[in-house]
Amino acid sequence: MTAAASTARSAPDPPYAPGAHQQPHWPEPGELTEVVRTLGSLPALVSPDDCDELRLRLAAVARGEGFLLQGGDCAELFAGPLIEPTRDKLRCLADMAAVLSSGSGLPTLTVGRLAGQYAKPRSTYTETRGDRVLPVYRGDAVNDLRFDARGRTPNPQRLLAAYRAANRVLSDIRRLRSRNHTLFTDLGGDFFTSHEALLLPYERALARAVPVSGREYGLSGHLLWIGERTRQPDGPHVAFAASVCNPVAVKLGPTATRTDVAELVELLDPHREPGRLAFITRLGASAVHDLLPPLVDEALTLGSPAIWVCDPMHGNTFTTADGIKTRRFEAIWTEVRGFIAVHQALGTHPGGLHLELTSRDVTECMDAQVPGREFRLDLRYETACDPRLNGSQALELARLAAPLLRPRTELMRDAVTLG
Ligand code: PEP
Ligand code: CO
To answer: What is the 114 CA–ligand 2 centroid distance (Å)?
Structure first.
């Protein structure tokens, strides 16, 4: 037995994340231990310097001097015909960023929901089709979308495949940066990655301390967020986010309270550093006006410089009579508009948008119906998880939102100049 193996076996902190919500039922804990040990020996996926750079850029957003556009698939796939080339994903975000920047007068910082978005929280443990009941799909890092018993059994080897898939996307980005200067100029000069930090064994295995300073970073992606279902202030996901120096975000759904905001601010940004913390609200088009003000007010009371980001997707999902999960474009736009209106009324900065989108011409989110014609979701419904905006819907949302994002002072200045 090698020294490394004996160390791993007697390690006092097994990687099974006790008490963590939304963890798969791995059938082979021993295999998970081995996988985690391998992940721990692999090079980090991103660098601490780049995480610091993103924090600096986000600090400008926190001061109201920029706007964050975060977007990508609900669930990235490792491979297959539905996978979208990285270049197309970046082009779609770059086009939106250009529209947002020119319409709002603020620079747009683009962060992909990619190169790591391989794990999904789910509302049920199983999925039933006919008389067959199997474990639910939890993202490519856990099991296979294909509905068969073998594919749906959580497989720890997939964590290694997730690492390799993320690495491929990051290499694509580096290649594009060196060769496609126009794309990167349109992206605002740089591009960063983000995903939900859901699978704690994976995230912890890729957390590394920087020599000398000893500061710990989660090096699976630049910005890591904690989802609505795992954001308990006393839970292990928030503890993980508190332990790393990356910029971090937390999703806030309709049940979030002032107390949640207060506790999360104290745990995640005790020193009130602009660029460290973002709250991504996903409250629903009809609830945003009532539910957002107290949350923002609590942060203001605490002197928190947290960035406020609107996810208009996850509070507006419903299932059609045919059993297809979808969202109406109108509801998505209504939540964005409500989010901006609330911030403008409070004098705070509507800092960004968090979107599930693809450049592909999918039919996953419903457009306004043409009278007499039904909207056909089944034509090109390709998502592995939640419905995404297609390329033209995404651009349309940017076009609608951009003029509303112009800082008030600038609007007043324009009015004076024109008057
Ligand atoms: C998601 O972003 O895909 C997601 C599951 O969101 P939330 O945590 O807000 O439900
Ligand atoms: Co989703």
So the answer is: 12
**Per-residue pLDDT at 362 exceeds 50:** yes
Residue-wise pLDDT for 24-63, tens only, equals: 999 877 999 999 999 999 999 999 999 999 999 999 999 9
Instruction: Tell me which residue of 391, 373, 247 sits closest to 306, measured CA to CA.
Output: 247
**Would you state the pLDDT for residue 361?**
95
- Compute how many other C-beta atoms are within 10 angstroms of the C-beta atom of residue 291: 21
H-state helical runs in 228-365: 236-243, 258-268, 288-301, 329-346
342/230 Cα distance (integer angstroms): 26
* 127: three-class secondary structure by DSSP: strand
For residue 399, the one-letter residue type is R
Can you tell me the distance from the alpha carbon of 410 to that of 188, in angstroms, rounded to the nearest whole number? 21
Question: Is residue 236 a contact partner of residue 67, using CB atoms and an 8 Å limit?
Answer: no
Tens-place pLDDT, residues 134-164: 999 999 999 999 999 999 999 999 999 999 9
Q: Note whether 46 and 220 are within 8 A (CB).
A: yes
**Per-residue DSSP letter, 324:** -
Backbone phi and psi for residue 238, each to the nearest 5 degrees, phi listed first = -65, -40
User: Which residue, judged by its Cα, is nearest atom 1 of ligand 1?
Assistant: 74
User: By C-alpha distance, which of 227, 206, 44 is closest to 123?
Assistant: 227
Cα-to-centroid distance, 180 and ligand 1 (Å): 32
User: What is the residue with the minimal CA distance to atom 4 of ligand 1?
Assistant: 227
Cβ burial, residue 392 (10 Å; 0-12/13-18/19+): exposed
Kindly list the domain boundaries of the chain, sorted by start residue. 32-418
> Cα separation of 30 and 24, whole Å?
14
pLDDT of amino acid 341: 98
Considering the segment(s) 32-418 as one domain, its CATH architecture is: Alpha-Beta Barrel (3.20)
Indicate if ligand 1 lies below 6 Å from the C-beta of 57. no
d(Cα 315, Cα 132) in Å, to the nearest integer? 30
CA neighbor of 375 nearest in space, from 399, 393, 398, 357: 393
74 Cα nearest atom in ligand 1:
3
Averaged pLDDT for residues 229-250: 98
Q: How far is the CA of 353 from the centre of ligand 1 (A)?
A: 14
Q: Are 274 and 303 in contact (CB under 8 A)?
A: no
Of 32-41, 177-186, 204-213, the least confident: 177-186
For residue range 72-105, list pLDDT tens digits in order.
999 999 999 999 999 999 999 999 999 999 999 9
